[in-house]
């Protein structure tokens, strides 16, 4: 019988294992708040588990064979890992695919301005957000600034306890009579969602003093710099707060205003992932869609021994903006890398590559919506996911008549059911909400184009796409178990 019981059937050993996975998962969330940071952490964990880059494997000069573990990165935002199996690759792979981008506010290319004595970074939101949820939340700035000379400055401000944070403002309730009458969709205008980054004007004397002290070894440069500053200040005496932010950026990070042109800076909720509930049964954190599936997929791969079929974990970017672009699921990166992999294993031909992709099967590991009793009317109770009832299988997603969705084959679902039951994985089946209430998409319809079997399977999330999302620890545990069962038995 299908098992949806979780908490009360676990042994002490299982509860300890569950807790350990969730402690490590929270660490992953804390150091992976952007797709770049997730790739970096994934590489660190993979290398610890014996993975090498495909390039390193190629340089080693021998053909890849069963048991070899390799990874390949695309533009620091997307990564694929393979654990070579005993059978030829053309027999197909077992793929776990998740996405590592999350909704947030991206800093524009020309972001810095001053208004009303405040300095701002202008932003453009990324992914689907209820805009009213984001003002007044403490935000951190994460990202990279790539200088013209190619040097990359990494930015991570707002995560350490004594770091400053930034915020998007909202109108005080006393003056919000008109605002409160507006529809939620327009109550906050996207263009006004700029991040406040400062309020203190630049003071010539103290700054010059500081600059002298800071660059004592090169007094000439410092004097020149101060003179330049003085000149620009005369022109825009009213933008002294903005000027001060520029000076801080220059002193602390060695960047100038033009460097924003080649930067990717994301404003994300500041702070750490935390246990949630008096019983500590849940995790509350930013970015769990879809890092909860990304992390459990990765862990499942890293902890699985060599199998007959090659096992693969694919972590992609840009799912939240429609899977478009070089680092998205729609790019050729995955296909090209499989071709490279087959070449490194001495098994490449165009036909074998096609066979490999078509004979593969995949769990598209993406989150589903957890039933929320406070909004019960938006769910259909028989076909919805519940927190703590295990890994969720969604045969299809889509909206308005199952549009634009992968619809997993019944034969494939039967196989997955059998595997989960044999391995005692708690799972449930669900659609995303009531018919015609809304809908969502994942990457499953894209890999399905190769003719492979794909089904969406993931962890139910409450408050999806809000600054803070909630998952059940039991579902996190079952997801990892389910993904591992799939790699071993499918
Ligand atoms: Zn999402």
- What is the radius of gyration computed over CA atoms, rounded to a whole number of angstroms? 25 Å
Number of strand segments: 21
Given as residue ranges, the uncertain stretches (5+ residues, pLDDT < 50) are: 210-231
Q: Write down the domain tally.
A: 2
Q: How would a textbook summarize the main sheet?
A: 9 strands, mixed
Beta-strand fraction estimate: 15-25%
Share of helix, binned: 25-40%
Number of helices: 13
Shape, principal axes of CA atoms? globular
User: Which hetero compounds are present in the coordinates?
Assistant: zinc ion
Q: Per CATH, what is the topology of the largest domain?
A: Aminopeptidase
Class derived from helix and strand content: alpha/beta
- Give the strand line-up of the largest sheet: 1-2-3-14-4-15-19-17-18
> In the CATH hierarchy, what is the class of the largest domain?
Alpha Beta
- CATH architecture label of the largest domain: 3-Layer(aba) Sandwich
Q: How much is the average pLDDT?
A: 92
CATH homologous superfamily placement of the largest domain = Zn peptidases
Gap from first CA to last CA: 19 Å
Can you characterise this structure?
With 490 residues, the protein is of the alpha/beta class. It has 2 domains: 7-101 and 286-489, Zn peptidases (Aminopeptidase, 3-Layer(aba) Sandwich); 104-269, Aminopeptidase i, Domain 2. 32% of the residues lie in helices and 22% in strands. It contains 13 helices and 21 strands. The protein has helices at 12-31, 35-48, 54-60, 177-180, 204-214, 219-235, 240-253, 288-302, 333-344, 350-358, 410-422, 444-447, 473-489; strands spanning 52-53, 69-74, 78-83, 93-99, 104-115, 118-126, 139-146, 152-157, 167-168, 195-198, 263-269, 274-276, 282-285, 310-316, 361-364, 368-369, 391-394, 427-429, 453-458, 460-461, 469-472. Strands 1-2-3-14-4-15-19-17-18 form a 9-stranded mixed β-sheet, with helices on both faces. The protein has a 7-stranded antiparallel β-sheet with strand order 8-7-11-5-6-10-9. α1 packs across α13 and α9 (333-344) crosses α10 (350-358). The longest helix is centred in the first third of the chain and has 20 residues, at 12-31. The protein starts with 11 loop residues before the first helix and ends with a helix. Residues 210-231 have low confidence and may be disordered. The structure holds zinc ion (ZN). Zinc ion binds at residues 289, 320, 465.
């Amino acid at each position: 019988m299908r098992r949806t019981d979780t908490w009360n059937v676990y042994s002490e050993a299982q509860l300890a294992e569950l807790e350990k996975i969730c402690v490590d998962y929270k660490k992953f969330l804390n150091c992976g708040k952007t797709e770049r940071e997730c790739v970096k952490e994934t590489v660190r964990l993979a290398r610890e588990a014996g993975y090498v880059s495909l390039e390193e494997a190629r340089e080693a000069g021998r053909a890849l064979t069963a048991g070899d573990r390799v990874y390949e990165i695309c533009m620091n935002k997307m990564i694929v890992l393979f654990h070579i199996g005993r059978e030829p690759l053309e027999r197909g792979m077992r793929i776990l695919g998740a996405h590592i981008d999350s909704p947030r506010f991206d800093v524009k290319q020309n972001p810095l301005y001053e208004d009303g004595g405040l300095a701002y970074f202008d932003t453009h939101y990324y992914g689907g957000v209820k805009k009213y949820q984001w003002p007044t939340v403490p935000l951190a700035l994460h990202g990279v600034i790539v200088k013209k000379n190619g040097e990359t400055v990494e930015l991570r401000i707002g995560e350490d306890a004594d770091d400053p944070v930034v915020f998007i403002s909202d109108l005080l309730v006393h003056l919000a009579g008109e605002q409160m009458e507006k529809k939620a969709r327009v109550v906050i205008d996207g263009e006004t969602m700029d991040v406040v980054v400062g309020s203190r004007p630049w003071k010539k004397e103290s700054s010059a003093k500081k600059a002298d002290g800071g660059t004592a070894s090169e007094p000439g440069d410092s004097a020149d710099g101060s003179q330049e500053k003085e000149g620009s200040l005369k022109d825009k005496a009213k933008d002294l707060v903005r000027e001060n932010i520029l000076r801080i950026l220059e002193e602390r990070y060695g960047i100038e205003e033009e460097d924003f042109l080649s930067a990717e800076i994301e404003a994300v909720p500041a702070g750490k992932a935390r246990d949630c509930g008096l019983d500590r049964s849940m995790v509350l954190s930013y970015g769990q869609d879809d890092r909860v599936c990304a992390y459990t997929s990765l862990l499942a791969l890293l902890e699985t021994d060599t199998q007959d079929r090659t096992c693969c974990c694919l972590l992609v970017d840009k799912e939240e903006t429609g899977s478009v672009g070089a680092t998205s699921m729609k790019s050729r990166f995955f296909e090209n890398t499989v071709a490279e992999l087959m070449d490194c294993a001495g098994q490449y031909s165009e036909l074998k590559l096609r066979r490999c992709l078509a004979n593969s099967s995949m769990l598209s590991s993406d989150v589903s919506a957890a039933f929320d009793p406070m909004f019960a009317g938006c769910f259909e109770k028989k076909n919805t996911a519940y927190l703590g009832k295990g890994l969720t299988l969604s045969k299809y997603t889509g909206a308005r008549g199952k549009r634009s969705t992968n619809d997993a084959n019944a034969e494939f679902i039967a196989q997955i059911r059998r595997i989960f039951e044999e391995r005692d994985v708690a799972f449930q089946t669900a659609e995303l909400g009531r018919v015609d209430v809304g809908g969502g998409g994942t990457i499953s319809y894209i890999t399905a184009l190769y003719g492979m079997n794909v089904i969406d399977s993931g962890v139910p999330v409450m408050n999806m796409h809000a600054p803070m999302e909630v998952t059940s620890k039991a579902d996190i545990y079952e997801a990892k178990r389910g993904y591992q069962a799939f790699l071993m038995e499918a």
